[in-house]
Amino acid sequence: MSLVRVHNFSISLDGFGTGEGQTLEAPFGHAGSRLVEWAFETRTFRGMGLHGESAGSSGVDEAFASAWKPGIGAEVMGRNKFGPHRGPWEDHEWKGWWGGNPVFHTPVVVLTHHPRPVLEMEGGTTFHFVDAEPAAALAQARELAGGLDVRIGGGVTTVRAFLEADLIDHLHIVLVPIVLGRGERLWDSLEGLEQRFAIEATPSPSGVVHLILTRRAR
Amino acid sequence: MSLVRVHNFSISLDGFGTGEGQTLEAPFGHAGSRLVEWAFETRTFRGMGLHGESAGSSGVDEAFASAWKPGIGAEVMGRNKFGPHRGPWEDHEWKGWWGGNPVFHTPVVVLTHHPRPVLEMEGGTTFHFVDAEPAAALAQARELAGGLDVRIGGGVTTVRAFLEADLIDHLHIVLVPIVLGRGERLWDSLEGLEQRFAIEATPSPSGVVHLILTRRAR
């Protein structure tokens, strides 16, 4: 059975998955890179060629980070993960934060109220711009995934919308020991979530805590 | 040197240290006992005679729970930890949630805008009702503590006020894997707290995660 998974989704102690004030230069707003620095050190993220040339770590952070890709046939992401622009598309040259050969190498459904033609990138990534509610977007992603799992890639609003719709089977949260104070909160509107998920916590020597939420049998 | 310590302070995944709607029957409002159940299982809490007669656990939860008392000479608590009443005291028979022989066995400073005579209880607990800002309340508690440490006992508003005033040296938070959705948030107004504290996380087989925040050298 095809599962719906979230991986490497970092939040602060106060529950913010991103800061305030996203711009081209600051995808996470005032949070800067603080939410994702733990990942930059891992072999998986180093292997994407984004964060330096050294081999990267192979401990518990890497064990969790590396699970993001195997078995995934498509990703769904919110528009704010794709880029900092709002409203109708004005810059059609913008093709995401990831350069000409994005790290996904699968179809990616980008949720937006503003349609745009499919973007075919090098390396197998195709961006499909879709105006749909979570269930319909997931159906489309499942079709594109060819029987494999679907990853919900973020941002916060997108993950929360899929949790509200009870569409997520596996949720990997990384609790980063910082207090951001402002931004987008993950847990809002999810009162009682623990009734639907088993929750396991694993601390890392890097200082983060990995939380794995697994959907209970339905 | 006398330290200011917080122990066994439970919060939900979404950062609430208590629920909504405190009453005489529900000290934690809609949270019920869910934030403190981990503690009820420990030998320390069983030893207070509040939570059953069996011996209680002796694992990591107990290791942290038992640290609440040694070296403490006084506690400071907010009025809502002392009782559910608001405004001027109308029921002078109310002497706290803990019966005639409270678990503290030290002086306790209760923060309130409504003065009231000192309450001397069995077993060495005395409740001192004080209308003061954190720094002044702490000075009074330190005097009562006779050179020992002072515990900030809660609730959320009180712990947060002492953190804002940068008066806390040791903060033991227990992250309980539930999403409460509403109540009083601990982390609000504390952006950048990690710059003042070293933070260590230890998970427990009970499902909670113990967070120890230790004030960095000033």
Account of the 3D structure:
Two copies of one chain form a homodimer. With 218 residues, chain A is an alpha/beta fold. Chain A has a single domain, classed as 3-Layer(aba) Sandwich (Dihydrofolate Reductase, subunit A), CATH 3.40.430. Helix content of chain A is 18%, strand content 28%. Chain A has six helices and eleven strands. In chain A, the strands form two sheets. Chain A has a nine-stranded mixed β-sheet. In chain A, strands 2-9 form a two-stranded antiparallel ribbon. The relative contact order of chain A is 0.23. The interface between A and B is medium-sized, with 26 and 26 residues.
Q: What's the structural blueprint in terms of helices and strands?
A:
2 copies of one chain form a homodimer.
Chain A: E1 4-12, E2 16-18, H1 37-40, H2 43-47, H3 60-65, E3 72-78, H4 79-82, E4 107-111, E5 119-120, E6 126-130, H5 134-145, E7 149-154, H6 156-164, E8 170-176, E9 184-185, E10 197-203, E11 209-215
Parallel strand pairs in A: 1-7, 1-8, 3-4, 3-7, 4-6
Antiparallel strand pairs in A: 2-9, 5-6, 8-11, 10-11
GO molecular function (chains A, B): 5-amino-6-(5-phosphoribosylamino)uracil reductase activity
Protein name (chains A, B): Dihydrofolate reductase
Pfam family, one (chains A, B): RibD_C
